Structures are given as C-alpha cells and as structure tokens.
C-alpha cells in the first residue's frame, strides 16, 4: 500500500514532468505585462470568456482559452458506411456536413477525450465501433471531438481550452441540427472522459444559452476533479446540461492519493463501481522505478491512469455486455458491501451501469419513482479484467450452534464459495472475506459477493475452508485439533436473477 507522502511525491513528479514536455503540439501564447488585468476575452461568433468569479474558485491559476485557430479542433465523423476513413468537419462547414453520410434518423454520438489525449486513441475507436455495431444503430453517426492540440500541458490551460471547445462543438451540433432539419436533440448523446466530461457540459450549456436547444444525454466518464471539485454548476458538468446526465466514477479520491476523478454526485444518476475510487486489477503499491524522465513519466502516468481510465472501459463494455451490469442504490458503499441493499425495490432502485441506463431511468421516471431534480447514487462490483461485468449475490452464512460445534469451539479462517448452475457450470472462486475471520458457534455473517455470470442462477455451491497459522495471533494456533467450522446453512440471494437458495451442507465439519 502507498502512503500519503509517496502519493503526493508521485503527483508532484507527474506535474513536473508534464511541464517539462516540449511537444510540438503544445499550445503556447504570448504573455504580456497587462494580461492579468484582462477580465474577458472574446472570440467572434463563439462569444466572450470571463476570468472573473466563479472561474477563480478552487483554482490555483486561471487562463483564457487559446484562440480557435491554435486549438485546431477536428471532428471526425464515423458511420457504418465509413468506419475507417472518417469525414473531417469544422464547426461551420455546411457543405461537408451535407456530404458526411450523416443520417438524420440518428442516433448521434459525440465522444471527447481528456487531458494529454487525442481523438486517435484506441479506446475511442473501440467505443465508436461498439456504438456502430449495436443492434438497431444502422443510422448512427459517431463524431469524435479531437482537441489534442489544446489538451497538452499546462493543465490549467487545458482546463481553460475546453470552455471554448465546448462552445465550438455546440455550434457544430446546431449546424447539424439546422442542415438536417431535425426537430430536437433528443437522440444526441455526448460521451466525455475526464476533462472531456466537463467539455460536454459546456457544450450542453452553450446549446441552451445560444440556440435554445437541449442535448438528450451526457455521459461523464470519471469527470476530472482538479479545478472542478466544489465549484458552482456553471464551472463543471451538472444535470442541467442535458435531459439526462449519467456519471461513472472510477477514481474519485483526493488528488494527494493519486485521485483524478470528481467524487461529488453531479448527474441524474451517479455510478460508483467498487466504491468509485480504486478499481480491481489496478495495482496500488505506489512504487515506481527510478529511471529516465521520459520512462518514469510513462510509468507514473500508467500507474495513476488505470483507475481513471477504467470508466471508459466499463462504458464500452456496457454497450453490448455479457451480463446485466446492474448497479444498486444504497446510502453508502459500506452498507452496499454489507448486503443491506440487495433487493431491487422502491428504496433501492436498480439501474444498469453505462449505456443502457437511460431506458431504465425513463421507466422509473414514468412510474414517478425518480425525481429529475435530484440525484441517485448507485454501487456495483466488477471484475479486475475483461469482461468486467459481474452478477451480485447476498450471501448469508450461519455457523451451527449444535453440540458438536460448541464442543469444537470457535475458529479462525476464511470461507470460499464456487457457485454451480443447473448445467453444472461453475462460477469463479470467491472468498467471503479478504482476511481470516473469527467464527464462533451460532454466528451469522452476511455480505455481498460478485461472481462471473454462468448464464443461470445457482442451484448449489462448493464451500471450502482455508486456514493459515499466524505466529503473532494465538487464535490461529492449533496443537490438538484441526481447524474447522460447522455450517448450519448458506443462503444465496441473487440480485440480477431475483432468486434465493438456502443450501444445507452434506458434510460436517467444513
């Protein structure tokens, strides 16, 4: 595990190395003695950008966006007819919009990268392909917002640039709307990662302010926290920016712990997979090798980026998932893990995380079970590698209070489960606890465990007892008898399948 000091040093290293980068596509502007006195800067049809409140709150520096011509924003349009060679658009190129194979039936997807990235990234290509491959999406258009020249260090300048890129994108959307003679923007879905999530928010806000149009949906994939946490809604993405705003938080913890994602619930629906801060499969030992600047930079960025990037991995998988990807409403992640929110009902709403959340949210809205002016926070467990989707089970274990169990007495160890379905397919092997636990006769334990989906609910389980001696813990010492416990029953309740099985052991002791 890493401590606060090493994590702070790591973040400082990242910032220093980023500032040292001398990339050809870094945006630089001339500085003048009077620049700080300038409060507002205007860019023709894209309007004026202020540096006054609230743009000064919770920000160590404050910049104007770079001029549009220096940002070099490109919009790459992909459809089923042109998957490999996109049509490149500019905000006001009406002729190209008309010849870009854009089907007015839609849907229309906009995808934006974040800091240090560009529209050529493989995750964007994978997401675009998944959207175009989706059944029923024959008329879909995927438009990649490539602002790589504006996404380079320093970070504060990239933060300023997305304000202008958001407005520019709003102008493009308006021109598409106008040229295709669309009725509204209900089937426009903007998907943004990190800084790209707030860029989507600026786009949604500009569409309402300048054109009286409102995006159908914005999906924020781990929206960036630095310069955006604890700010007013004008400064960041919020649920007023589209008819439906859903958020996947995957790296929501303080920056000094290498957290880049915002923790506040800011959408209509906020998903917190695995608690929303760290993700399984992302190492958290906090170490990095002492190598050259460039190599160390890539090592550190790769380390801290894993949790942050997992949000777009989850979303891409959710487009055509191998299991329901259900998330459950609960008052806290701890309460969720304790199995206190394992039934889908009016108090614990269940919504699939990612792409298909909108359809379920609309059904809940029609049933007056959700308020569009408030937020729903939901939790889910995932795996540490692809496919990430898991199914959730509330597991209750009762240690027998029989005479045999009492004579044997309490014991310390771990219980593991492997589920079997009606076709004798086995799930993965899971422990009820990460560490050894004290089990006494009559004790009942309850918790939530996520397994790989076999395609059917379980009908049986393989239960195993694991015991390890710890020389420093007298409770684990065994001299005259073997380590074991007597189980009265194990109850397995499925959230996804809505089933409940109480299994009694065919052997004793375990």
List the keywords:
disordered N terminus, elongated, Lipoxygenase-1, metal-binding, secreted, metal ion binding, Rossmann fold, Lipase domain-containing protein, 510 residues, 2 domains, 21 strands, eleven-stranded mixed beta sheet, triacylglycerol lipase activity, alpha/beta
Give a quick rundown of the structure.
It is found in: Secreted. The protein has 510 residues and is of the alpha/beta class.
Distinct helical segment count: 10
> What is the radius of gyration?
26 Å
Strand elements, count: 21
Strand order of the largest sheet: 4-3-6-5-7-8-9-10-13-11-12
Give the biggest sheet. 11 strands, mixed
Which CATH architecture of the largest domain would you pick?
A: 3-Layer(aba) Sandwich
The termini sit apart by 33 Å
Tell me the CATH topology of the largest domain: Rossmann fold
Question: Which of globular, elongated, flat, extended, rod-shaped describes the shape?
Answer: elongated
Runs in which pLDDT lies below 50 for 5 or more consecutive residues are 1-13, 15-35, 285-294
- For the record, what CATH class of the largest domain applies? Alpha Beta
Going by CATH, the homologous superfamily of the largest domain would be: Alpha/Beta hydrolase fold, catalytic domain
Helical residue percent band:
25-40%
Question: In what range is the share of β-strand residues?
Answer: 15-25%
Mean pLDDT: 87
Secondary-structure-derived class: alpha/beta
How many domains in all? 2
GO cellular component, one term: extracellular space
Family: Belongs to the AB hydrolase superfamily. Lipase family.
Main location: secreted
Subcellular location: Secreted
């Amino acid at each position: 595990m890493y401590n606060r000091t090493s994590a702070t040093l790591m973040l400082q290293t990242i910032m220093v190395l980023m500032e040292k980068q001398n990339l050809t596509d870094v945006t630089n502007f001339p500085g003048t003695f009077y620049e700080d006195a300038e409060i507002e800067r205007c860019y023709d049809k894209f309007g004026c950008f202020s540096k006054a409140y609230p743009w000064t709150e919770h920000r160590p520096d404050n910049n104007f966006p770079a001029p549009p011509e220096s940002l070099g924003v490109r919009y790459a349009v992909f459809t089923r007819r042109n998957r490999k060679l996109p049509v490149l658009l500019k905000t006001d190129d009406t002729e190209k919009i008309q010849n870009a194979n854009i089907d007015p039936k839609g849907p229309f997807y906009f995808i934006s990268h974040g800091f240090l990235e560009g529209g050529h990234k493989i995750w964007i290509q994978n997401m675009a392909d998944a959207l175009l491959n989706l059944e029923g999406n024959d008329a879909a258009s995927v438009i990649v917002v490539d602002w790589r020249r504006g996404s380079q260090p320093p970070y504060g300048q990239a933060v300023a640039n997305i304000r202008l890129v958001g407005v520019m994108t709003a102008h493009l959307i308006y021109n598409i709307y106008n040229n295709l003679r669309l009725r509204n923007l209900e089937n426009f879905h903007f998907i943004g990662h990190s800084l790209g999530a707030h860029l989507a928010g600026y786009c949604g806000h500009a569409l309402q302010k300048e054109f009286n149009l409102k995006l159908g949906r914005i999906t924020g994939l781990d929206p960036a926290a630095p310069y955006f946490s604890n700010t007013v809604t004008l400064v960041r993405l919020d649920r007023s920016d589209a008819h439906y705003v859903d958020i996947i938080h995957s790296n929501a913890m303080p920056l000094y712990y290498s957290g880049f994602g915002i923790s506040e619930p800011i959408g209509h629906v906020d998903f917190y997979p695995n608690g929303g801060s760290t993700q399984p499969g992302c190492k958290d030992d906090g170490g990095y090798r002492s190598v050259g600047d460039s190599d160390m930079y890539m090592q550190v960025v790769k380390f801290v980026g894993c949790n942050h990037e997992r949000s777009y991995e989850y979303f891409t998988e959710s487009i055509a998932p191998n299991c329901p990807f259900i998330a459950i409403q609960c008052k806290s992640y701890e309460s969720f893990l304790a199995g206190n929110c394992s039934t889908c009902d009016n108090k614990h709403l269940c919504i699939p995380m990612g792409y298909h959340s909108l359809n379920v949210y609309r059904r809940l809205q029609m049933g007056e079970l959700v308020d569009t002016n408030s937020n729903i926070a939901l939790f889910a467990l995932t795996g540490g590698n692809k496919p990430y989707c898991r199914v959730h089970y509330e597991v209750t274990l009762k240690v027998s209070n029989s005479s045999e169990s009492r004579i044997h007495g309490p014991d310390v160890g771990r219980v593991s489960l492997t589920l079997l379905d009606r076709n004798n397919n086995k799930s993965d092997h899971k422990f009820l606890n990460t560490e050894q636990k004290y089990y006494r006769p009559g004790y009942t334990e309850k918790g939530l465990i996520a397994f790989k989906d076999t395609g059917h609910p379980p009908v049986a389980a393989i239960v195993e007892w694991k015991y390890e001696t710890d020389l420093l813990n007298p409770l684990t010492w065994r001299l005259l008898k073997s380590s074991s416990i007597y189980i009265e029953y194990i109850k397995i309740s499925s959230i996804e399948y809505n089933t409940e099985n109480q299994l009694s052991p065919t052997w004793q002791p375990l």
